[in-house]
């Protein structure tokens, strides 16, 4: 096993960051301005990962801040229904809203998102709302990079990382870069770098690492610079060209599976779910990457990002079928 | 005719204020947090009034600011399609979004709205975006009270009123109070009072006049205080109990029509459309109020507020049928 | 008497707006960046006018918001010492500071001010801090235009004007334009126009009226437009070229006195003090303007704006001496 | 020598953070609200340290942002006059002001400061204004903790630290905690901890380390926690009870000198100047702490914090005299 974990804790994984609403075009293959009907799903990368990892069999929970309205209640209710622990979720009482993402699916390769993220509740998560006890209950804390984009959520994330380290809770940092809420190119450079060096596992696309480094970088350099600090695994994703994981001793590469693509959203969240399932269940890094890639390939063929998360059976049967082809 | 209008102008009515998106629950009679499917419509009181008055046969236009995205384009395209002049609409280039209203229709009498109005484009309409030429083209400028809730839209509305007065364009002030964007109870008191005294016609519900006056008021007092300034007609609405119009010489009362109510949204906008159609077409005040009430009664039975606006034929046939019952 | 006043009230004049700190260069005739020593005085136009009118013999008070620190206490203590009623002054408990003005006196004709007015306490005066009883106690309420430059002070000023009118307290509007805190050229146009039309007396320099009108205007036009609303006296100042007052029936002009000029600050505040003393004491408009001009001529030869305010004896003796020359 | 430095660089020390104005009461021993006359000095901890270290003979420079007005020009001119390199100082063109500190000296033990630091220019220093070349020119970069209190100055400081490390420029972190500009107790906890672990030398009072740790701590624990990361020297100050420096191998304690105290301001800045002079000139840690303590003891007996900084001769003669007593 690549990542030594504290045993015997009631939760395998707690994710920290946004829990939002996706409003997915019901009729796709047309521009958003012509779309008339939308279907509402829970969304947001860390919420999707908590759901996806739960679907795969892990015991998961979430640290988040949601609005005190129908949208916030919808998010919490859905997480509860699928078995994600919501005792770490706080309700905002200052009128901040739950973020929205309207998805536009013009074609499988032309997907875009229209975000409503001004003054959203998740960015108002504050350090005082992070509970030491809750972090001590979980083997892993996953921090979403978007949580670093604004104060006080930014400080909440760093504070949670500090508390996690103190209690032996491993830290996974998912870069999860969304340009929208950052104020300058320097902000993600500074805070991604500080957080990545604190984490045990770092996951991101090549483009996201480039944002962190402030320019076009190379995988080996990125990995070796991070492995000089706390990280023991650095995962770099290249879309259809597969992904690669670096450790101090090894480099492991994984192919992307061929998939019938409906939209690209949610692929990264499914990937992280599969990877973490692998790492927590004690799989080899090779198998963890394969599980990650398979979960991603399944989600891109489905309409939502959260409800679409596959079960372990689905992932395994998908992997078997792919192997046979 | 109660309101003397400049003749021979290319537009009858220009409305100033928000043009937004309504996301109406597709399956009503359930709480919003359970609603999964939403249908998108153009919304916002002044947009609805421009649409409603156009449907009744007036030549209408709009002064508004919309987002530079699919939502803004949807709004402008819809207005164009139904024949509302959009040459007074400006596009925001600072990243502000078009406002959203999620409607919850639990039952005909339990309707509520969840608003996304943080930093919305319409409140960033600025005085420099008000064009004197455009105001000179119209017989009437209708100002929505919500435009007064924030700077610079607040100054844009007062500036537009000043320019309108200079060119003999009559001013209609629709109180259109939405608690959400105001910072204190004093703000609407101060700015509603200042604007109402500048207007030729003032339209609002009893509750809205109470907000303006800072306490429970009486119709005759409200009317006589305003008629001492510029207004020549003061219309006060009492929901199912009908409405009343005061002029310097007369008091005219109108019954509400019996209606099959689906939801209450949009009733006020249809009312204003009917009233303005009456005033502009030279009807008596009695008939103008009747047209207003009939248009309102039709809209409450339909799913949207904008697309549901009735034609003159529909209004007249509804009035005939009601009379026969 | 030009202005009918309610008799028998405990205060003659209450001024509303900023009470600040002037830090005047001790060694003048040099640029501010070389100045090492500063002397602290109370400043801010409405504070200076309350002090100046008191010095002339009126019973004056002030409605203001000051910081909860040594600067705020200094202001209140000084006002008390010179006999200005401070019971209408509230203390800010949200950490806002008292504004500062560093004066640079390079030469009698090259004076400039460096203002510290970000988030100052006076602009946080709110309508809920305006007491009806206090306004009912005074014959006149003077509103400083700078109070209109930001919310909630802006609403507080309009609310106070409304309450004053209700109780027969006359309203004097001193345009007092300071570019610093306004966000666009339209804001002073809109709010100065709205307030000037509500006032009984309007006082300003030609430049200030031009800001209000949005372009270069003419005295007679400015006056006639305002006299069509509530104002009964419109005073327009032309610096060394004298000043002129318009009423519905008359035009009265006054020469500026020859003065030994040290700096130009404070002249306008002394002018207003003298004018109001004249109006309240029942002088003719001619004599009121002469008192105003004499008070201004005295202050420009002294180091401060507040402590320099002359007594009635000083003003009268100055007028006599000037006449003899 | 405790700190290995890159040799042969044109500057010994560059400080990063605020360069402000102190307005010191001319007549002390009275409360600020009675003080009428103030004398203007350059102030701000990193400015004072650049000046103090220069006075001791080091070649120093500063990275700062100042206002585009007489105050900003005064600061830059003074730094130039005393020989501090100002080529790293940028001028703010967005209207932000230079911070002010009014000092109140009631008695030698009752000193307080009234700060004007809303929207000040120094907190608007941005990462794009940090020049790699400039950092490469200096042996040491000193970062003031106050620079971490707000964005974008916060990111500028972390970015500068990263660039410094890349070029072998040693990092000194002076905690310099001023409660005023921080928004919560968690912000300094999070950012002080992140920065302290990046630095080679950390300097602060016991109280400042307690702010960083979020509670009452102990010197040995504080030191050992930091020495596990980048720092090689951790200096903790205890006011009149002396100071202590921890390295991986040693603990060095220094007595405070007896001093005739006029006010307490500036002592910490003089201390840092003396310490850095010692470290850079290759003194033992014992002598560096003694130089630091002596410089501090001299400054507390003088009126300003910047102009009062002693020369090396003054420090040495003070140390000799103290020894003889």
TrEMBL record, chains A, B, C, D:
GO terms, molecular function: 5-dehydro-2-deoxygluconokinase activity
PROSITE patterns per the UniProt record, alphabetical: PFKB_KINASES_2 (PS00584)
Keyword annotations of the record: ATP-binding, Kinase, Nucleotide-binding, Transferase
Entry's EC annotation: 2.7.1.92
Coiled-coil regions, chain positions: none
Record-annotated Carbohydrate kinase PfkB domain positions: 12-310
Catalytic activity: 5-dehydro-2-deoxy-D-gluconate + ATP = 6-phospho-5-dehydro-2-deoxy-D-gluconate + ADP + H(+)
CDD domains hit by this protein: KdgK
Highest taxon in the source lineage: Bacteria
Pathway: Polyol metabolism; myo-inositol degradation into acetyl-CoA; acetyl-CoA from myo-inositol: step 5/7
Entry similarity comment: Belongs to the carbohydrate kinase PfkB family.
General function of this protein: Catalyzes the phosphorylation of 5-dehydro-2-deoxy-D-gluconate (2-deoxy-5-keto-D-gluconate or DKG) to 6-phospho-5-dehydro-2-deoxy-D-gluconate (DKGP).
NCBIfam families named in the record: myo_inos_iolC_N
Protein name: 5-dehydro-2-deoxygluconokinase
Species annotation: Alicyclobacillus sendaiensis PA2
Record gene name: iolC
